[in-house]
């Protein structure tokens, strides 16, 4: 890790539905990495656990309730202008209909369909970990 770059800790949700599909969302076109697909989540705030962050972010970004399950993988990644740690957990959709509140689009996809979507570089390891299940 490069200590001169800004650093973020991100809680990430792999949200499973009852038929084994995963919820992904498309980043807003004008923002950082706009137009790429991602697994939903967000920055862990001071004093917040990873699970609390994931529940809060999913409520804010998608308007649904989830249950945070077991840890899948943690990834350290450096982009040209910042670095991050992605802390990824399996999650289960409990209630609500997902809405693209903070994104351009959302989709339920099967694991085999993930190759059809462009993700940020840091997400490649997450996809590989999901495939290995």
TrEMBL record:
Q: Which UniProt keywords apply?
A: DNA damage, DNA repair, DNA replication, Hydrolase, Magnesium, Metal-binding, Mutator protein
PROSITE patterns per the record? NUDIX, NUDIX_BOX
Work out whether the entry's keyword set contains Repeat: no
Q: What is its EC number?
A: 3.6.1.55
> Is Ribonucleoprotein tagged as a keyword?
no
What's the cofactor? Mg(2+)
Q: Binding residues for 8-oxo-dGTP, per the UniProt record?
A: 27, 38-41, 123
Positions binding Mg(2+) in this chain are 41, 61
Q: Which reaction does it catalyse?
A: 8-oxo-dGTP + H2O = 8-oxo-dGMP + diphosphate + H(+)
Gene Ontology biological process terms, A to Z? DNA repair; DNA replication
Which domain of life, per UniProt?
Bacteria
Which is a Pfam family this sequence falls into?
NUDIX_4
SUPFAM superfamilies from the entry?
Nudix
Query: What is the enzyme's main class?
Result: hydrolase
Q: Where does the Nudix hydrolase domain start and stop, copy by copy? A: 6-133
Gene Ontology MF term list: 8-oxo-7,8-dihydrodeoxyguanosine triphosphate pyrophosphatase activity; 8-oxo-7,8-dihydroguanosine triphosphate pyrophosphatase activity; 8-oxo-dGDP phosphatase activity; 8-oxo-GDP phosphatase activity; metal ion binding
Q: Which NCBIfam families match?
A: mutt
**Protein family according to the UniProt entry:** Belongs to the Nudix hydrolase family.
Q: What is this protein called?
A: 8-oxo-dGTP diphosphatase
